[in-house]
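call fold(seq) -> tokens
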Amino acid sequence: MSIPCRPVWLVFVNDGHSTADVAEWTRAGGPGPVPLPPILELHRFSGPCR
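ret:
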């Protein structure tokens, strides 16, 4: 059984620290079973509407 994955839209993650935070989160299983870390919540925004 797979866990559904929803897109997460992030902005301003081009610096080394933010990129490392995103990479660590994805290695841990995000997005999906692993919630977005609080530090990345600061970079979250609403994605495009359909």
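The helical segments are 16-28, 38-41.
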